[in-house]
UniProtKB/TrEMBL annotation:
Highest taxon in the source lineage: Bacteria
Signal peptide limits: none
Protein name: Bifunctional diguanylate cyclase/phosphodiesterase
Portion of the full sequence shown: 519 to 794 of 794
Span of domain EAL: 24-276
Taxonomic placement: Bacteria, Bacillati, Bacillota, Bacilli, Bacillales
Gene source species: Planococcus antarcticus DSM 14505
Length: 276
């Protein structure tokens, strides 16, 4: 009996593993087709100036509705797309969509703001990022200073010639930010070397401002450091008024999170604009 149970247990485990493997390979294999069939869309989450409470920008976040698997989180498919190289195509799709959308908003008379696009490691190190960005901006007719690229610490540290690529983008007039700031293991000296405009405090720290005094101290320190380095600082994952009050008190420049808005369809951004 014991033997049999052991055997069943083993089989259960392997079938679960198989399921995971097949979900992963299904995802990997459906990206190209999904892009062609329009299954990918882009949502936009407002970024708010804490002092004025105006929308100063939006972050573009990709969404995928798979015909069989339903909605798949970017947290699941982006790493898979990084592995098989499809991130280059997803990334270009998001970049082009976001630039065009922002230009359309401006043409419709909305007060201009920046759109921030996440750039993954492979996109930054392999593709000729400056060429892709230039082409996306030109095709959309969007001025470069209305585009921001969100890079992570690991990208900046990992890519050879990262500094010259960043310099090239900066020279074009594009804004650069460091996403998930504080979660990497890199040395702070890169802040001196790399031409960035904005630090985005990772949502893990924001979430714990009122649960963990050490996280609160880290948030306050990051804001202070950003100001000392003359960098802009934004907190992501702001969900409560208490978190916002803390950030305001520490003179954090901007905030983004469910307390204000979730990532929204473009039409909802327009509605929001009309009603504020
Ligand atoms: P991220 O760039 O750090 O984006 C922030 C994530 O936090 C988004 O998740 C957003 O929906 C979520 N979020 C925003 N406010 C709140 C809040 O108040 N509370 C909580 N709990 N979450 C909040 P999402 O859209 O699922 O994206 C997850 C990650 O996937 C992103 O993290 C980014 O690393 C990646 N990603 C998303 N879109 C793209 C893309 O177009 N290209 C690339 N390369 N990566 C992307
Ligand atoms: Mg981001
Ligand atoms: Mg982030
Ligand atoms: Mg992230």
């Amino acid at each position: 009996r014991v033997k049999e149970e052991g055997k069943n247990h083993f089989q259960f485990f392997t079938s679960e593993m198989n399921e995971l493997v097949s979900r992963k390979s299904t995802i990997a294999m459906s990206i190209r087709k999904g892009l062609k069939l329009g299954e990918f869309t882009v949502h936009y989450q407002p970024q708010i100036d804490i002092e004025t409470e105006n929308i100063i920008g939006v972050e573009a976040l990709v969404r995928w509705h798979h015909p069989k698997l339903g909605s798949i989180s970017p947290a699941e498919f982006i790493p898979i797309a990084e592995e098989n190289g499809m991130i280059i195509h997803i990334g270009e799709f998001v970049l082009r969509t976001a630039c065009q959308q922002n230009k359309d908003w401006q043409d419709s008379g909305m007060a201009p703001f920046r759109v921030a696009v996440n750039i993954s490691a492979k996109q930054f190190s392999q593709g000729n990022i400056a060429t892709v960005v230039t082409s996306a901006l030109e095709d959309a007719g969007l001025a470069p200073h209305f585009l921001e690229l969100e890079l992570t610490e690991s990208i900046i540290q990992g890519a050879t010639s990262a500094i010259s690529k960043m310099q090239e983008l900066k020279t074009m007039g594009i804004h650069l930010s460091i996403d998930d700031f504080g979660t990497g293991y890199s040395s702070l000296s890169y802040l001196k070397l790399f031409p960035v405009d904005t630090l985005k405090i990772d949502q893990h720290f924001t979430r714990n401002i009122h649960n963990d005094p050490k996280d609160a101290a880290l948030v306050a320190t990051i804001i202070q450091m950003a100001h000392n380095l003359e960098l802009n600082v934004i907190a992501e994952g702001v969900e409560t008024l208490e978190q916002l009050a803390f950030l305001k008190n520490k003179r954090c420049n901007q905030a983004q999170g469910y307390y204000f808005q979730k990532p929204l369809l473009p039409e909802k951004i327009e509605e929001l604009y009309m009603n504020t």
